Structure formats: structure tokens, C-alpha cells
Amino acid sequence: MRWWEKGTNPNMTEIKSAQQLVDTLLNAGDKLVIIDFYSPGCGGCRALHPKLCQLAESNSNALFLKVNYEEHKSMCQSLHIRVLPFFRFYRGAYGRVCSFSCTTATIKKFKDAVAKYGTDSCSMGPAKGLEESELLNLASNRDIDFIHPMRPSRAGDLALSGTVS
User: What protein family is recorded (predicted)?
Assistant: First the structure.
């Protein structure tokens, strides 16, 4: 078993596509969703993995998504992931609430973000998920198969939907 497959919890999901990432965020409701962008060859990612597994276990109401940078490089580049390990936190209708890089030496930053955004609260409305600019970047990326989701825009109209082959 490879290091990134060890110690995973029921609330940890390996993302296999851009579509799965977007759909998971949109269907998460008001749950705290934490995305871990990692690489199998990253020493910092490997060192941090056991601590993330412990945090996932102690925060069973949060959803931890794992994105392998090497397998999904094009998607990660569309999302402007430039350093690893990198984390993004999403919460319901607020969408992205924070993002940062973190190491075992700075794990307090991660724990503080879980404490701040993981508390019971209601963000009133459907889960926002990725920002519109991120969705457009994914939709325009010809290296990935992705269908832009239709959702209400700020004006109340439906956002345009497009497919990329």
C-alpha cells in the first residue's frame, strides 16, 4: 500500500476527476470540505499525511478530499495550485473560506482553520463550491473532461453551461 492510501478514513475521498471535485463540492451542503492537494513524491505531503488522517478522524463531520497533483496536473494548474502540500477549505454557500500551504511545522494553521470553519453554523443557501473563474478555467481546459454546472447566478438567471471535449 502506498503512503497516501494508508490510514484514510470514511470521510476522506480520493478525487478522480474535475467533474467529481465540482459535484462533490456542490453536493456537500453546509459541511466543511477540505481539499488536500498532494503529490506522491512530495516529502512534505508524506510527512503531513498521518496528521491529516488524525484530523479527519477527529472531525468526522468534515469532508476531506484528496487530489493527486501528478494524476491531475492539468486540473490543478487550472485551479492555480502552485505549491504542495496545499489546502482549500469550503463551506456551504460561502464557497471557499480559506486556502494555504502547510507543513508539519505549521500544522497549527490547519488546526486553527478547522476550528474556525468547522463549527456548527448555517451559511443559508445551496453550496457554492468553486468560484466562477475556477469553473471557467476548468471548462476551457481541453486536457480534462468537464461540464460546467448550471446554477443560479447573482442576477437570478441560470449560468451558461458548456462542455469541453
Answer: Belongs to the thioredoxin family.
Asked whether the beta carbons of 22 and 130 are under 8 A apart, the reply is yes
Active site residue 76: no
| 98 belongs to the catalytic site | no
pLDDT for 61-73, tens place per residue? 999 999 999 999 9
Peptide bond into 85 cis (omega under 30): yes
User: How many CB atoms within 10 Å of residue 24?
Assistant: 18
The edge-to-edge listing of strands for the beta sheet with 63-68 is: 12-14, 63-68, 32-38, 86-91, 95-101
Looking only at the bridges linking them, the beta strands covering 86-91 and 95-101 are antiparallel
Q: Which domains does the chain have, with CATH numbers?
A: 3-160 (3.40.30.10)
Per-residue model confidence as pLDDT tens digits over 75-121: 999 999 999 999 999 999 899 999 999 988 889 999 999 999 987 77
Asked whether the predicted pLDDT for residue 9 surpasses 50, the reply is yes
